[in-house]
Amino acid sequence: MNPTSIVSLSNANIYQGSSLVLNNVNLEVGAGEFIYMIGRTGSGKSSLLKTMYGDIYLKEGSGVVAGFNLKDLSWKKIPLLRRNLGIVFQDFRLLTDRNVYDNLEFVLKATGWKDKALMKEKIENVLTKVGLKNKGVKMPYEMSGGEQQRVDIARALLNNPKLILADEPTGNLDPDTTDEIMQLLFNICRDYQTAFIMATHDYSIIQKYPARVVRIENGEVKEISAAGV
Ligand SMILES: Nc1ncnc2c1ncn2[C@@H]1O[C@H](COP(=O)(O)OP(=O)(O)OP(=O)(O)O)[C@@H](O)[C@H]1O
């Protein structure tokens, strides 16, 4: 493993139940690196991301994510791993019955924060980072899809992760909003040296915001150039 890697998978076989989805995955992601993961529907992108955040147990091969050994990941350690990662989903997954501030506070409390003043400071800090200063009082249903995705990203930033896993974060957004969100993700990557692994179907994003690309195909993960997308 490269000492500067935030993700290191070696000869990893990824299963859904008893079915082998990906065979012999080798992947190194450096600190602060942005990479795209592309592949057809059902090729295994989400399965690979789930393995990285401990939702699928790594049975074969080896893997280290944000300093956590995936082979040694007991149920007890999964929340700790998740505290060191940010996860962003296509469908935002906000709690619909509480406002933005309370959505973020919920995560902080669940990850062990207790001091109200410190939590307030942290929440204001991440909302400012995503361009939603003063929007804490809004309910999710009062916000556009782009704003809700910003809240999802703010939530992912709460614990200062060194790695954000994003599963089609622009999948529900129109082209202009997609642009805004991509600029935000690239700025976060640049300003805070946060590594990103972003699964996407949208190749036009890769042309516009080039970065390293891995393609999942026929059960394997292959490195390709952005020009080859
Ligand atoms: N919970 C599950 N139980 C069993 N099999 C699953 C489960 N989730 C996904 N699969 C199977 O695993 C394979 C990989 O699915 P996965 O969701 O990782 O693909 P994907 O590339 O993320 O697809 P998409 O782009 O549509 O999100 C598919 O054959 C799928 O049917």
Automatic annotation (TrEMBL):
Protein name as annotated: Cell division ATP-binding protein FtsE
Domain of life the protein comes from: Bacteria
Listed PANTHER family: CELL DIVISION ATP-BINDING PROTEIN FTSE, IMPORT ATP-BINDING PROTEIN
PROSITE patterns named in the record: ABC_TRANSPORTER_1, ABC_TRANSPORTER_2
Origin species: Flavipsychrobacter stenotrophus
GO cellular component labels: plasma membrane
UniProt xrefs under SUPFAM superfamilies: P-loop containing nucleoside triphosphate hydrolases
Keyword Nucleotide-binding: yes
